Amino acid sequence: SDLPSVNTSYKLYVTGNIHATGTSTSSDMRFKKDIRTIENTLDLLSRLEGRRFTWRNDEFPDMEFSEGEDIGLIAQELEESFPELVTTDHQGYKAIDYARLTAVLLQAINDLKKEKDEDIKNLLEQKERELYDLRLRNTALESYLCAQDPDANFCE
After folding, report:
1. Residue 52 has what pLDDT?
2. Is there a contact between 95 and 87 (Cβ–Cβ < 8 Å)?
3. How far apart, in whole angstroms, are the C-alpha atoms of residue 19 and residue 16?
4. pLDDT exceeds cutoff 90 at 8
5. Model's pTM, two decimal places?
6. Whole-angstrom Cα distance, residue 64 to residue 108?
7. Are 100 and 85 in contact (CB under 8 A)?
8. Which residues does residue 87 pair with via DSSP β-bridges, in sequence order?
9. What is the DSSP pairing of strand 94-96 with strand 86-88?
10. What long-range pairs does 77-82 form, CB within 8 A, spacing at least 24?
11. Looking at the DSSP assignment, which residues form a beta bridge with residue 71?
12. What would the pLDDT profile of 100-134 be if each residue is shown by its tens digit?
């Protein structure tokens, strides 16, 4: 059979598609220790590419992959940056825990926001300096012109 033999480390092993109205994964802080922020998410994610592909159904018919074009990541590529998100069964076949990828993507969004906020702050400070410099120049020009023509409409 082309179907990889069942890995007993999984409590549920299904070939084909699953439809559910909801799932939950334990995530309570009381179950966790050594909690820290995921770092370098943007750099690590930028090494990955979302892929379009077609499953090799003809070579692995027992896997019951979906027909037609699909999208996703390549487990071997993801494993280089986020090994925690990839499992390898006893035959060497790899799988991605897409649900846990959400934490990485969320952190990347937070990192982008932090970068954007810092860029906006720096730009605002630069524009405030430029405005201050222009006001000084404007005051100097008004003083010069008013010395030349005290009756000009902008002279006080």
Report:
1. 97
2. yes
3. 10
4. no
5. 0.75
6. 33
7. yes
8. 95
9. antiparallel
10. 77/47, 77/48, 77/49, 78/48, 80/47, 81/44, 81/45, 81/47, 81/48, 82/44
11. 52
12. 999 999 999 999 999 999 999 999 999 999 999 99
The residue type of 2 is D
Pair of tokens at residue 49:
């590419």
CA 117 to chain centre: 16
Residue 1 has pLDDT above 60, yes or no: no
Each residue of 54-104: pLDDT tens digit? Answer: 999 999 998 889 899 999 999 999 999 999 999 998 889 999 999 999 999
Mean pLDDT of 13-33: 84
Q: How many DSSP H helices and E strands does the chain contain?
A: 3, 4
| Neighbouring-strand partners of residue 58 | none
Sequence-distant (6+) residues with CB within 8 A of 80 are 47
β-partners of residue 153 are none
Residue with tokens 């070579």: 59
Tokens of 77: 């590529």
Among 13, 16, 18, which Cα is nearest to 65's? 16
- pLDDT given for residue 2 in this prediction: 56
